[in-house]
Write a structure and sequence with these properties.
The structure is a homodimer of 316-residue chains. The first copy, chain A, has four domains: 60 residues, Arc Repressor Mutant, subunit A, CATH 1.10.10.10; 49 residues; 87 residues; 83 residues, no CATH class. Chain A contains ten helices and 14 strands. The longest helix of chain A has 19 residues. In chain A, strands 5, 6, 7, 8, 9 and 10 form a six-stranded antiparallel beta sheet that branches. A four-stranded antiparallel beta sheet of chain A has the order 12-13-11-14. Chain A has a three-stranded antiparallel beta sheet with strand order 1-3-2. Chain A is elongated, with a radius of gyration of 28 Å. Helices cover 38% and strands 25% of the residues of chain A. In chain A, helix 2 packs across helix 3, helix 4 packs parallel to helix 6 and helix 9 packs across helix 10. Chain A has 316 residues and is α+β, with helices and mostly antiparallel strands. Chains A and B meet through helix 1, helix 4, helix 5, helix 6 and strand 4 of A and helix 1, helix 4, helix 5, helix 6 and strand 4 of B. Chain A binds a DNA duplex (30 and 30 nucleotides) through helix 3.
Amino acid sequence: MSKSQRLVQLIMRINSLKSFTVQQLAGEFGLSARTITRDLQELSELGVPVYSVQGRGGGYRLLQERMLPPIAFTEGEAVAMFVACQSLNNLSALPFDEGAESALHKFYHYLPADVRERIDRLKQKVAILSPNRTMNPECLRTLLQAIMIRCVVTIGYSSSQGVKERDIQPIGLYASGGYWYCPAYCFLREEVRLFRADRIRSAVLNEAMEWREEADRWDLRNRPENVDTNPIPFTVSLTRSGVRQLESDEWFGPFLVVQEDGGGKATIRISTENMRFYADHIWRLGADARIVEPAEAVEYMQRKLESLKSVYDTNE
Amino acid sequence: MSKSQRLVQLIMRINSLKSFTVQQLAGEFGLSARTITRDLQELSELGVPVYSVQGRGGGYRLLQERMLPPIAFTEGEAVAMFVACQSLNNLSALPFDEGAESALHKFYHYLPADVRERIDRLKQKVAILSPNRTMNPECLRTLLQAIMIRCVVTIGYSSSQGVKERDIQPIGLYASGGYWYCPAYCFLREEVRLFRADRIRSAVLNEAMEWREEADRWDLRNRPENVDTNPIPFTVSLTRSGVRQLESDEWFGPFLVVQEDGGGKATIRISTENMRFYADHIWRLGADARIVEPAEAVEYMQRKLESLKSVYDTNE
DNA sequence: TTAAATAAGACAGATCCTGTCTTGTTTGCA
DNA sequence: TGCAAACAAGACAGGATCTGTCTTATTTAA
């Protein structure tokens, strides 16, 4: 094995040890202690954060963070990662710390001048935006950490009754429609619930509480709120403009049936407790959509209409 | 200079040349041709996609893509990039090609087993979602490409009058509220307009048309649609629940004034042509919000109410 | 005080790297 | 067709670097 290959191997080996002595490595690699000493010195000069403790019980330690061996990327790979991470930066709050930024710096540093120029042009022009500027990225980071290491979190959650403390076991984290959501097992309600992350005002890991196994089965393809029990049909009829507005809708889009006159219909199956949610969703379309069934939803819309009408009537 | 350093230098040098001969490099590096030959052979074995053309006028060429010299990352950096890109993967359509994916593979490959396990746990649990599954990632990619290389694009755009072809000069690309938007100079209307990317059914680079310089001044902080000319005040009064719904709203959130009783008010300044947009935005809140001014918006809401009312009345 | 650890210099021998020379092959051009 | 320009690859000597051994010094915990 050549020396440079050996150095890469050495990085991998010392990554997997929290502490080691020169003799030990010399044995493992079949080399003399002097050579290993020299290698470690060289790695240190190359930026591997290794330090030594002299004296009995001493040895070498890795400072802070483990390192990966040097990896060669193609230009396309670097640009793709760069643009992806860069565009995320405009998401007001992100659960990642400075790690991503320093990695971007490394990529940027090695890119040839012409590619750098092209990337600079994209920097302020491609983004994934989140309108929500009120939330604390520290909370997101804590939630992410909790998912990774399987830990219960004590949060301060702002509901309509004010901010209350509760223990949750976060089992996922996703951004959708400009908001972060955190599905979690709630120890207060003793069930899996969906929390709006911007309503989580504080989050602290609570290592004292025990992790419940059932949460591990959850993933994005199998969201508990999507599993409707006892589903009923929910049908809307749409004008031409209504069709256009719903055609790329998350829920109704896939079930849209367009008629010859340009209008359309869509029927989805929902559980009764979510009726209001879908009715409110349709409400946004105004006169371009009419709920056909269930009757409760039609009534709900009519009540909503009356109450809004009274809001404007009393004030004229 | 040590051999390994020299190889890194060599990668950089050959990246900046499309074609070169051994003699040439031997001169530049002050080494013999034989040594350079051997170095190139070694780089080739390490995966640098270099190939040779024999005969007069021949030489070495770089196949496909330029490569970056090997870069060492810390574990934290790798995890941050990995999770960031991974979570983006769930965004139904992304403007990046396989580049990001193969880069992720490299990171994953070098990560120690325990970190891999933690990442696996996150994979299906953290995401940035987009509800819109109808759009073509190929279009996004073309638009991104066009921004990078400054090129006009011919698109098929679906408006209320059907799909029409038009030439645009894309000047940005962003995702917000689950949709991709593309601000672009429109050659048809001769002004900068905002296009919904999911309504762009096809996109082809049109290298024949000339690029207009004024588009380069645009960036995300200086969006043309935010520059309202001749602004008028737009005021809503809110119930307690309305306050809660608007507090992290993109437009009204920052201007919310909460009263002692829990209700609130918000006044923003808009241009008259956007009145309907903001009124429709407030419409969503139902009876939890009442538009106070301008009078045109109040009338608009009342007309919308009447038309929705008639939709349900005629059918009972 | 001692044992176990790093730190670092010196030096010979081993190994690898480099340059030179050589023979071959491929390819475009005159 | 033959020549010149390019790569391909072997051989070998000399040089450079790496490695192992030996050594001395220092640090630290037991």
